[in-house]
Amino acid sequence: MISRFGKIHTSLFMKKNDAKTGERGNKMRSLSFRTLLTVVISCLALGVTALIIGLGLYRSALNDQYIRHAFDIAVFAHQSATRGSADTVGLAGDVMRIYRSLSPEQRSKVGTEEYLGYFSEVNTGKGSAYDILMHMLDTFIKSGEVDDVYLAMYDRETNALVYMVDPQEKDRFMTGEWETVEAEETEIFLSWNGKGLLYHNSVTEKYGWLCTAGMPVRDPNGEVCGFILVDLTTNPIRNELISFALRMTLALLLVTALISLLLVIFMRRNIVAPVNALAGAAAAYVQDKKNGSAASDHFSALDIRSSTEIENLCHTMADMERDLAEHEETVKKAAAEKERILTELNLATQIQEDALPHVFPPFPDRKEFSLYAAMDPAREVGGDFYDFFLVDEDHLAIVIADVSGKGVPAALFMMVSKAILENNAMTGRSPGEILASVNETICANNQTQMFVTTWLGILEISTGRVTAANAGHEYPAVCRAGGRFELIKNRHGLVIGGMEGIRYTEFEMFLRRGDKLFLYTDGVPEATNGSHELFGTKRMLSALNSHANGSPQDILKGVRECVDSFVGGAEQFDDLTMLCLEYKGPSNNTP
Fold first, then answer.
1. Residue 370, SS3?
2. Domains in the chain: ranges and CATH
């Protein structure tokens, strides 16, 4: 049976494995492709990061270079303006004196002829300081190294840059004209302490990104009266950056392609090929198992020497294959043994069932009573038993018992106890004498220290008198005709097999026509549900009374349904045995 189960399990596994393999083949890409994709993405991500950082550093370096160049020209132009024949200080002083004397309304007229008339007293004729500076500063512009070189002054109060000399031919600012500048730029230039480079970067409509560098012109008192300023657009930096980015991108693509090629070759040789070999060995293992082959060298035959975790995996898989082969052999032996035990248990179950009365009605010719019994073991075989038999034509013996323990040992002890008890009962002794004799016999050979609780009653059919003895068993329940079931609490004796020399007290009760006697083992009141709650005697009596008007078979069926409903899906804890007798009176009596 187990080998058949093993084949079924293996077949199901193969089908699932084939289905999964096909599904993976449709949905998953090869390891080589995934490796290539990972390498390309990683290289591109690293390259883009390096490109961004490189562009930032390169731009910063170019910007510093432009600032240094503009400042150097400003220094050189400042030296030429202040050391030459031009009265730069005087020119600057005259222009700023006039500018500061103007009202806001007058300043607002900048760019008009009227506004320029305010500065008509400034000498701009040939040979004047203005003329000399115009020609001198123009030479710097014509050199092409800068966009504009001019003399101007920042005014903190109006936040304006006032032009004095501007040689730029296009969009030239005339003497005294001004434009609004950022307050930050004004503060940078007016607050310069002579350390570092004096410059300011801004964005203008005319030049775009513009660097303005300068040097202050100071009067004899050391006060700043103007600035030699140099404008240098940084737009060429953008062109340089674009060219740099293109070169870097091309290099990045070439390096990525080279690294990807080398890494894919490496991956195929050291990872993909070994993994494919392992996959092939696994597929061959599955196929051989499907075909029933006992081969166990699928993984050990692989020659994987990568000195990596894959080689360790190959060795582990080989060990696993050998262990599985050994385990399968062990499982087959265990399965065969289990099959043998199950066969024997099934046979024992059948023997036990055959040993108990199981044909109902048991005495179809006897109309004085009706009887029904049932035993449901918790395992394949149980330790509970019931029995009933005619001692003679007027006496019916009724027995119900519960052996300590469960399973095969309890079943064997039950069979022995049942045979001894029946043999003693057929001698015609009273119930107390029968139980005492059975106890002596069992105690004499009870090496396992097992015991059995027993209730034995002998019904005198002609009168309805029941003489009974109880060896530690559950109290019987009696229902008088038209009444309700109630427990009959008599004196218990010690269990059979517990101690030698025990005597058992007998008691009598009379059954009248329509009375019912219910016997049971502790499996009924001790039935347990999923909450570990016992069914209990009260629920048992309630179940009995719900079916008190039925036949003995109906009563047992109703009690069992109540027990099953209470227990639910919980596992059966103990053997469950019940017997019910209905006394109908002697056949020659009238109701």
1. strand
2. 84-233 (3.30.450.20), 358-583 (3.60.40.10)
What is the C-alpha separation between 24 and 30, in angstroms, rounded? 10
- The single residue listed with the structure tokens 């080589």 is 32
Give the C-alpha separation, 150 to 162, whole Å. Answer: 11
In whole angstroms, what is the distance from residue 479 CA to residue 514 CA? 9
Using only C-alpha atoms, the chain has a radius of gyration, in whole angstroms, of: 57
Tell me how far CA of residue 546 lies from CA of 153, 543, 552, 559, in angstroms.
116, 5, 13, 9
Looking at the predicted structure, is the pLDDT value of residue 590 above 60?
no
Sheet strands (E) in 283-331: none
Average pLDDT over residues 231-236: 79
- pLDDT value, residue 295: 67
Location of structure tokens 């024949």: 85
Report the range of poorest mean pLDDT among 193-197, 317-321, 531-535: 317-321
Q: Is 162 left (phi over 0), alpha (psi -120 to 50) or beta?
A: beta
Q: Residue 522: how many CA atoms within 13 Å on its side-chain side? A: 14
Q: How confident is the model at residue 348 (pLDDT cuts 50, 70, 90)?
A: low
**Residues 6 or more apart whose Cβ sits within 8 Å of residue 431:** 456, 457, 458, 467, 468, 469, 504, 506
According to DSSP, residue 308 is labeled: S
Residue 298 has pLDDT above 90, yes or no: no
Q: Contact 199/59 with Cβ under 8 angstroms? A: no
Integer Cα distance of 482 and 499 in angstroms:
42
What is the three-class DSSP state of 2?
helix
Q: Per mean pLDDT, which range of 13-17, 58-62, 285-289 is the poorest?
A: 13-17
Give the E-state strand segments of 205-345 in sequence order. 208-218, 224-233
Per DSSP (E only), the strands in 166-270 are: 178-180, 199-204, 208-218, 224-233
Q: Give the angle 232-235-236 at the CA atoms, nearest 5°.
A: 95
Q: Report the C-alpha gap between 457 and 438 in whole angstroms.
A: 15
Whole-number pLDDT of residue 336: 79
3-state SS, residue 513:
coil
Residue ranges with strand state E in 328-429: 369-376, 384-392, 395-403
Q: Which amino acid is at 120?
A: S
Residues 6+ apart with CB under 8 A from 226: 88, 89, 91, 92, 96, 151, 152, 153, 164, 216, 217
432: Cβ contacts below 8 Å, ≥ 6 apart? 469, 503, 504, 505, 506
- The mean pLDDT value for 499-522 works out to 94
Within 8 A by CB and 6+ apart from 313, the residues are 278
**pLDDT at position 306:** 64
Token output for 332: 């087959």
To 5 degrees, how large is the angle CA 494–CA 495–CA 497? Answer: 115
Rounded to the nearest integer, the mean pLDDT of the chain is: 84
**Which of 576 and 341 is assigned the larger pLDDT?**
576
User: Taking the model in full, what pTM does it have?
Assistant: 0.49
Q: Whose CA is closest to 11, among 286, 273, 207, 352?
A: 286
Angle at 274 between CA 270 and CA 278, to 5 degrees: 160
pLDDT confidence bin for 297, thresholds 50/70/90: confident
